[in-house]
Amino acid sequence: MTKPDEETLALSLKAHLEDKKAVEIILLDLRGRASFADFFVVATGTSHTHVSALAAEVDRFCHERGIRVLGVAGLPEATWVLVDAGDIVVHLFQQEARSFYELEKLWHQPPAKPGKPEKPAGQPSPDPSPPAEQRTGPEKPKKLDKPTKSGKPGKLDKSDKPGKVAKRAKTDKVKHP
Q: What is the domain extent for residue 16?
């Protein structure tokens, strides 16, 4: 399915849900922001039974158009039902669950601020911390030369090391099987 067809299909699905008396229907365009789907259709049903019936209608809508539904989650509870139709994912909520999860807030792309170019998706935000020379706070602790058993500060002898000191193997002539 081509990208314009997906958008047309998502708009058709939104209209179909309107016909089935779903409320607060929104279409979120995720192209360029998510790799798992291009569109979210988010709608609210008025009751447990209504949400279940809307999920069945979405499944029937996809089946009639030859779109494979990859999965349905959230039934029989029908508080939040997700219908995965590949590039279009439908979220059907009861009002309490929709208010609690606020899915559209999570995925809504805020409008660009006037005078500031919009940051392209996928690029990290600049580091808000000041450069190293401007930072204040504790400095790294200095290493102190501690006296050793031999009495010389900072130098170890064999008596300072626990156990025997192992000899290093020569690595320049390693034979591999």
A: 3-104
